[in-house]
């Protein structure tokens, strides 16, 4: 397997170009600021993500390939306040700056880190990706499946072309960002989903990140005008205590009560096979906590039909049922021109 990993690394180096999200420290070292690690990378080495390389004092970054390309329901990302019932063209590459033991996309995200992970890429141009989006009338192209921050130059290369056709960009991310990368993305990315994995810094460090960086990212995203939705995968024994879930909800409400919070069900995957799968009643209680702490839109996901009313969108003013869902399927959408059909109040999001 080692030789195969080396071969994959060689393929990735060949399918790279000089990045934009870095600075030179000296003749041999560079600092990458695509993610919150801000790796200082010596000549011939890669950053934490394993896919951004220092070659001759220049930062080489992924370009010209995908490992996954699919037309997904927008609700799968999940975005519940972005064009309900529509589809987004989703693409992914290789690598991640975290190493979560329960990652559901580990085959791509842990490439070059885990010897059993990694698949060979399919080569494609930004123009071809946009052509596919146009063919299928996708309003959005989403960078997902691996961590999009570490492949931001490629995403922007696609989104720049897509924007000419009125197609918007979206990120599905762990939120380990920097001010520089968010400023770089803002002209081309409108929708940003963040995984807020825990409110315990020690647990975040076990996953490869820091809580403070993710919290700062959420604040910056809102300040910079991205549409933000946040997901917390509720893992029994890891982050499912009522006090921790309440802390997450309090924080989000303090940033904006209009941030949709998705609490989703863990199932055994990759290296985490000890905890029990999340029970529906745990998700329902988490959603209740979100509302108790002042959030206006809280959703329970991954167990369609078992989470009571928490798949639906309700008016925060009059309580009217606005968007009825079953899993990723929209059953009814009664929002009219971005407003509640019953009381007329604006409902935050993108509905047209």
Automatic annotation (TrEMBL):
The keyword Iron applies. SMART domains: Elp3. Binds 1 [4Fe-4S] cluster. The cluster is coordinated with 3 cysteines and an exchangeable S-adenosyl-L-methionine. Pfam families: Radical_SAM. The keyword S-adenosyl-L-methionine applies. [4Fe-4S] cluster binds at residues 96, 100, 103. Keywords: 4Fe-4S, Iron, Iron-sulfur, Lyase, Metal-binding, Pyruvate, S-adenosyl-L-methionine. SUPFAM superfamilies: Radical SAM enzymes. GO terms for molecular function: 4 iron, 4 sulfur cluster binding; lyase activity; metal ion binding. CDD domains: Radical_SAM (cd01335). Its cofactor is [4Fe-4S] cluster. Residues 81-296 form the Radical SAM core domain. It comes from the Bacteria. InterPro entries: Aldolase_TIM, AmmeMemoSam_rS, Elp3/MiaA/NifB-like_rSAM, Organic_radical-activating, Pyrv-formate_lyase-activ_prd, rSAM, rSAM_sf. PANTHER family: PYRUVATE FORMATE-LYASE 1-ACTIVATING ENZYME, PYRUVATE FORMATE-LYASE-ACTIVATING ENZYME. NCBIfam families: AmmeMemoSam_rS. This is Pyruvate formate lyase activating enzyme. It comes from Candidatus Thermokryptus mobilis.
């Amino acid at each position: 397997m080692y030789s195969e990993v080396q071969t994959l690394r060689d393929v990735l180096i060949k399918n790279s170009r000089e990045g934009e999200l870095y600075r030179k420290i000296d003749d041999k070292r560079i600092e990458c600021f695509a993610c919150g690690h801000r790796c200082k990378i010596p000549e011939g080495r890669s950053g934490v993500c394993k896919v951004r390389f220092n070659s001759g004092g220049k930062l080489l970054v992924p370009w010209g390939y995908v490992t996954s390309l699919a037309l997904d329901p927008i609700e799968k990302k999940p975005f519940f306040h972005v064009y309900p019932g529509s589809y987004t063209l989703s693409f992914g590459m290789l690598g991640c700056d975290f190493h979560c033991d329960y990652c559901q996309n580990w085959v791509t995200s842990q490439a070059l880190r885990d010897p059993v992970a990694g698949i060979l890429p399919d080569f494609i141009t930004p123009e071809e990706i946009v052509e596919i989006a146009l063919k299928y009338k996708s309003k959005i192209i989403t960078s997902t499946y691996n961590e999009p921050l570490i492949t931001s130059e490629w995403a922007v290369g696609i989104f720049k072309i897509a924007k000419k056709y009125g197609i918007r960009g979206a990120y599905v991310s762990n939120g380990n960002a920097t001010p520089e990368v968010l400023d770089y993305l803002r002209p081309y990315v409108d929708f940003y989903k963040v995984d807020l994995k825990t409110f315990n810094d020690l647990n975040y460090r076990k996953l490869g990140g820091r809580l403070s960086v993710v919290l700062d990212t959420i604040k910056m995203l809102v300040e910079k005008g991205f549409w933000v939705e946040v997901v917390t995968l509720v893992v029994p024994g890891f982050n499912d205590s009522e006090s921790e879930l309440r802390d997450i909800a309090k924080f989000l409400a303090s940033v904006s009560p209009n941030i949709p919070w998705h609490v989703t069900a863990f199932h055994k995957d990759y290296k985490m096979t000890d905890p029990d799968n999340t029970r529906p009643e745990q998700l329902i209680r988490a959603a209740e906590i979100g509302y108790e702490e002042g959030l206006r839109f809280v959703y329970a996901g991954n167990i369609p039909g078992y989470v009571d009313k928490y798949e639906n969108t309700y008016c925060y003013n009059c309580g009217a049922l606005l968007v009825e869902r079953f899993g990723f399927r929209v059953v009814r959408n009664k929002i009219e021109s971005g407003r509640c059909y019953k009381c007329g109040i604006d409902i935050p999001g993108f509905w047209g």
